[in-house]
Predict the structure of Helix-turn-helix domain-containing protein.
Amino acid sequence: MSTAMPGPHEVLTVPEVMKALRLSRFKVYDLIRSRQLRSITIGRSRRVPVDALRTFIENQLSEDD
């Protein structure tokens, strides 16, 4: 099993983002609603591009500085 990070054009499900950030479903959707975390909708499914998750994390780290 590979533990490499997904490529920049791959997308994550909300549960995968929840696991990556160790946040609740409500908080992940709150970040999406507030446009702090970019996402796309495919049919009725919400997906978060890996690069959007990386950008969110980088922005959070730069706010702490």
Observations:
- Residues 11-64 form one domain.
- Helices lie at 14-21, 25-33, 50-64.
- The longest strand covers residues 45-49.
